[in-house]
Amino acid sequence: MSAAAPRLPAAASPAAAAVHLSSLKLADFRNYATLSLPLAPGPVALVGDNGAGKTNLLEAISLLTPGRGLRRAAYETIARSGSAGGFAVAATLEGRDGPTAVGTAVQIAADGSRSRRVRIDGADAPGAEALLDHLAVLWLTPAMDGLFTGPPGDRRRFLDRLVLAIDAAHGGRVAAYERSLSERNRLLEAGDPDRRWLDAVEAQIAEFGVAVAAARRELVGCLAALAAAAPSQDAFPAADLALAGDVEADLANRPAVAAEDAFRQALRDGRARDRAAGRALFGPHRADLLVTHRPKAMPAALASTGEQKALLIGLVLDHARLVASLTERAPVMLLDEVAAHLDARRRAGLYERIARLGVQAFMTGTDPMLFELLGPDALRLTVADGRVRPA
Prior knowledge:
Oligomer: single chain
């Protein structure tokens, strides 16, 4: 992605290939000692009591993508209690290229350290980013309900996850930017840093920071374009989106190269101030995603809890459509306890949107009645005590 104008198609690409998990296997994962689960395309309803292991299944699937999954949990907390400390997740994907075996495992070395391995069709992959060549996984969890009222850092992480689904290099750029910021902080704390080294680190910060800001801006522009085209009577209200930040504003008015030069100069001019603050006070690490409830012209943070939930669901559904449009591959969606907080009209709207997207969507709930409107082709599974069976 670049700082260019959004390149969003008017609708989901007709060439977007359906992708689904046809099987899921777990070993020593949370409350699952072993699991071998056949799956089918389309909606998957996972029904069971709280604590039965429904969300654990979603978390396992979320680890088939870069990062620490939908809970952002430390690896040692994921391994099943009483196991050796490692775990494995494997799946068979069905898509345009035929079946593809993907998997990830965390193993414990002799010194007690944990390392993650990723395999694709039986061969070791260079990193988890390689999974994005085969699968995009999007999720919505109850922990995200406070997204609009929480700190800006939560919204930046959310936005970066959205970008990563269509730009596999974005995670590496964000990590490199954050490492460079940390290095600059250490140099400034030293009191009398090598100015040539500081110049070099700030050049890296500016390069990576502008790339991160440009990718975020483009993603926000694409989602804003989709929201602008949304029907006024949709079950989920349209959201106006904007990205607030100094570098982001600069990119709106001049080329990335000029924005990079200005960012580098701002870092140089702000050294004394940043040394006193103990951190950089300028850059995309301070940006914020601004969301407005369009029909009411109201900031999302001031909307009711129900309206915020509807806005967030609509945003995630639009993102799924965007992923299908830009990658020509339908994503897999993980929707944890979403239906329970919707009235019947919005539940029907959600299921209709999922059907139109043609995605495999895993949904959890405690009451099978929540999924009555899914239709007869949905796969319904009962989860209890680390076991899964057809409903």
